[in-house]
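Protein entry
_____________
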Amino acid sequence: MPVKLRTYWKRYLLGAVALLVVLAVGGPLFYARVIEGDAAAPLAVGAGQTAATGELSGTYTVSAGSESGYRVHEILGGQSIDAVGRTRDVSGSATLSGSQVTAGEITVQLATVTSDQARRDNQFTGNIMNVAEYPTATFRLTQPVDLGAGFTGGDRATADATGELTVRGVTRPVTFPVTAVRNGTGIDVSGSVPVAFADFGVTPPSIGDFVKVDPTGQIEFLLKLAPAS
């Protein structure tokens, strides 16, 4: 083989090796920072609600603007990512007696939960949640939640909610903090429920050491409660 040709092939091979190294190291970084981008901020009640009006006691229903979903930490090729999926297909109701929430139940339609990646959504609705068999996740309040006397006058309240969370046909007791504020005649409520996937028969997906999903995550929600007509 002529010297020039041997030199060309050496350069070609070195270039190919260098490209593979760049793809192995830089590919996940490019995906995490450019394709995946920044994760959506946690769901939370806003700061610009309308002044509270009307009687507080009564029954409220989940209305337009409500949202729920998941947040879970992933490792992709050594890059740290927060995966977030959301849906506005949320329904339910809550009953208040004064500033005390005496009953409540929320249902989320899991088939409509989407993230910014179709491959993740296919995993979520298929192998992970099996929405064909278990189309919904529900939470039912089992203990009253006292939002405090100041909530009646419009103060923002934070309290613990205790109830039963049902996912994939498995029901577990949960306790988590919620934040609530009156918004005109309605009430805005947000919170985050910590979840260990194994408790609900869910195995986090993984591909060797390249893709790993944490064994725990969060169920986030923002509820817009309107007085029942």
Observations:
- The helical segments are 3-36, 118-128, 149-152.
- The first helix runs from residue 3 to 36.
